[in-house]
Amino acid sequence: MRTIRGGHLLTLEGVDRVQVVDVLDTAESFVEVHHRTIRKVPALTGRVVASLFFEESTRTRLSFETAAKRLSADVISLAVAASSVKKGESLRDTISTIEALGLDAVVLRHRSSGASEQVARFVPHVHVINAGDGQHQHPTQGLLDAFTVRQVLAERRGTTGRESGAELFDGLRVLIVGDVLHSRVARSDIAVYRALGANVRVVGPGTLVPRELTEWGVEVSYDLDESLEWAQVIGLLRLQSERGSGEFVPSLGEFATHYGLTSARLTTLDPRTLVMHPGPMNRGVEIDNAVADSAHSLVTRQVANGVPVRMAVLYLTVAGGDGR
Amino acid sequence: MSRYVLRGGVVVGPTEARRADVLVDEGRIISVGTDLDVGRAEELDCTGAWVGPAYVDLHSHLREPGAEAAETIHSGARAGVRGGYGALVAMPNTEPALDSVSLVRDVLERGRSSALDVAVCAAITVGRRGERLAPLGDLAALGVRLFSDDGTGVANPLVMRRALEYARPLGVRLAQHCEDASLCAGGVMNEGEWSRRLGLGGRPAIAEEIMVARDLDLLRLTGGRLHLLHLSTARAVGLALAARAEGLDVTFEVTPHHLVLDESACAAYDPIMKVHPPLRAASDVAALGELLRQGRLDAVATDHAPHAPETKDQPFDEAPAGMLGLEHAASVVHEVLGANRPLDLFRVL
Q1: Does residue B145 share a domain with residue B255?
Q2: Residues in a beta bridge with B22
Q3: DSSP string for A188-228
Q4: Is the bond preceding residue B96 a cis peptide, omega within 30 degrees?
Q5: Out of B269, B313, B316, whose CB is closest to A90?
Q6: Phi, psi at B61, each rounded to 5°
């Protein structure tokens, strides 16, 4: 990954430790904005950020828009449901229309892998931030997951994330569970955790965890219970039945039995094990209620941390990180 | 320029290439030789050039009728002339499909006023739906020698068997698009390390190889003639060569793009690189090049498949499949063959 300062954020593939720590440290400095009386900094005053969501999303869109507003940017929000893009209108047409409005940055969510890469080629002078493209990448999710893990581990040590750098990730055992094949979150998480020095393992049914995934530098396992014992951090993935993942397993019930983090499995976890989920959760499929609401769960923190991490990404790309 | 002489080139024939001049009068070659006494004729300096028969493309999508914004018979023919072609075969996956005497006659008629010779490959089944046989007998009587549902294969083995049996006594050849559709479901590029990394659905090599193996087995059962379109994996070509060694009447072609581009070309999500069958692993590209250099490929056919530019401005997974070929096929073959292989170049083109 090229440095995101003054550029785009399209993927975390190939990202290095220094680049990740740069974003995490910047995000940490934005956390306190949330506790101010006036929750705003003037970093992007006069800049225009468009959030273009060609695919349904509530959490990510709100998180980005909140982040942009806290940086004092002007935000144009366009929720383009897939159906409303006129048939025959190309992706390029849609972007040129939006571009005519004079944008500094586009936050793009699209159902097709590679869409943000293509848009960055169409409008190279606009900063493009990938808010999730098909089954490819979801870079800000990966960054906020790493930010959340660092924050919690640092707190346990009585230090701050910034002071700890990437040290807390050295040899950290991270397990990613479920529909890895179709998951953009998994691809971004694996890239970011590996860049920070963690050991990553993926586990799930044979159809959703191809044995070839070792090519990503991860361990591949099909034994959830043994993997739960191994793991210090567990990242659950949404079973993407809307993308046809349902055809990859005999039934949701069988998936839950073999690869769901059930309340029965919860009792076997080490009390320090962290459980994460990018949302929206299929409760009763990949995660049981009891797990989602347990002390292991970082789900709420992940949502909260989305804002400072996205502030950092917008700030570093659009303002280039200068003149703060 | 009714009388002219091509002077100073290397004339390429089926068995040898040698320095010679060629005298042409009223569109006919009058004589070939050195130090020709040509009388009054325009001189065309061909020093450093190969002079040979125009190429024939077995596989061009001319898009007419139905998608004239992408290509027409006349524009496709001009592209062919630019690329050195003198004849091409128009594929039947137009809208409507070329599955009837009247449609085929119309395309042949338009072809006659184009810049080169246009032959038609007609559909095997009505509407290319893979269900009911198109009027192969009537079309054969019209002069059609090649039939294909190209764009998709004939998925149902019983339909393919009947087509082979029906075609055999007509003396015509069936051309199969070899990709098992169910194994390619949701696929937009070669299945492998790149598709997994890019988050794009895969079309595995095995989908092609299974279809090739099935059709060769059917051909062994039925007899007749089969042509395998755009083979893209080393193993698929190996199956075809082995079947022919065994005595089956099977021919095959490889495209220029499968000779030089591998799956990593999809990394930038540029839909120009989206083709069916997909750009394959680098090892397949290397193997096809080696087969070409060994003289073991029957033909290089372009699968020239234009689309209107705006349709390629879509996301990779939504864009239509197909790339151009007529204008650069000869350069590609030349590059892959290596320098000074004129006989091989004219043989596969």
Answers
A1: yes
A2: B6, B32
A3: HHHHHHHHTT-EEEEE--TTTS-GGGGGGT-EEES-HHHHH
A4: yes
A5: B313
A6: -100, 110
CATH no., domain A17-137+306-318? 3.40.50.1370
User: B39: phi > 0 → left, psi -120 to 50 → alpha, else beta; which?
Assistant: left
Find chain A residues with C-beta within 8 A of B270's C-beta.
118
Q: Pick the catalytic residue from B57, B284, B303, B344.
A: B303
Give the contacts of A181 (CB within 8 A, at least 6 positions apart): A135, A207, A208, A209, A210, A248, B196
User: Which amino acid is it at A311?
Assistant: M
Q: What total number of domains does chain B contain? A: 2
- Contact residues on chain B for A137, CB-CB shorter than 8 A: 199
Picking from B186, B193, B315, the nearest residue to A118 by CB comes out as B315
- Chain A interface, best mutation among B188, B196, B263, B310, by max A CB count within 10 A: B196
Residue A62 CA to residue B227 CA, distance in Å, equals 56
State how far residue B309 is from chain A, nearest Cα, in angstroms: 10
User: A134 to chain B, minimum CA–CA distance in Å?
Assistant: 7
Q: Are residues B17 and B71 in the same domain?
A: no
What one-letter code names the amino acid at B19?
A: R
Domain of B8? 3-45
Task: Give strand pairing partners of A275.
Answer: A234, A297
Residues B142 and B225 occupy one common structural domain: yes
Q: How many CB atoms lie within 10 A of CB B4?
A: 15
All structural domains of chain A with their residue ranges: 17-137+306-318, 139-302
* Residues of chain A neighbouring B193 (CB-CB closer than 8 A): 212, 215
Q: What CATH number corresponds to the domain at position B340?
A: 3.20.20.140
Going by C-alpha positions, the residue among A239, A266, A269 that lies closest to residue A254 is A239
- For residue B298, indicate whether it is catalytic: no
Both B127 and B274 in one domain: the answer is: yes
Q: Are residues B268 and B240 in the same domain?
A: yes
Q: Which CATH class is domain A139-302?
A: alpha beta
> With contacts defined as CB-CB under 8 Å, which chain A residues touch B311?
90
**Fold match between A17-137+306-318 and A139-302?**
yes
| pLDDT greater than 70 at residue A1 | no
pLDDT tens, A204-260?
999 999 999 999 999 999 999 999 999 999 999 998 776 656 689 999 999 999 999
Tell me the one-letter amino acid at B144. Answer: V
- Yes or no, beta carbons of B315 and A213 under 8 Å apart: no
Mark whether B165 and B232 lie in a shared domain. yes
- The single-letter code of the amino acid at B104 is V
Cβ distance B196 to A181 less than 8 Å, yes or no, reads: yes
Each residue of B78-133: pLDDT tens digit? 999 999 999 999 999 999 999 999 999 999 999 999 999 999 999 999 999 999 99
- Are residues B204 and B289 both part of a single domain? yes
pLDDT in tens, B37-67: 888 889 999 999 999 999 999 999 999 999 9
Q: Which parts of chain A fold into alpha helices (H)?
A: 17-31, 59-70, 91-99, 115-122, 139-157, 161-164, 184-195, 224-230, 252-259, 263-266, 289-292, 299-318
Give the number of beta-carbon pairs within 8 Å between A and B.
Answer: 65
Q: Which amino acid is at A300?
A: T
Report the length, in residues, of chain A: 324
Q: How far is CA B189 from the centre of its chain?
A: 20
- Same domain? B22 vs B111: no
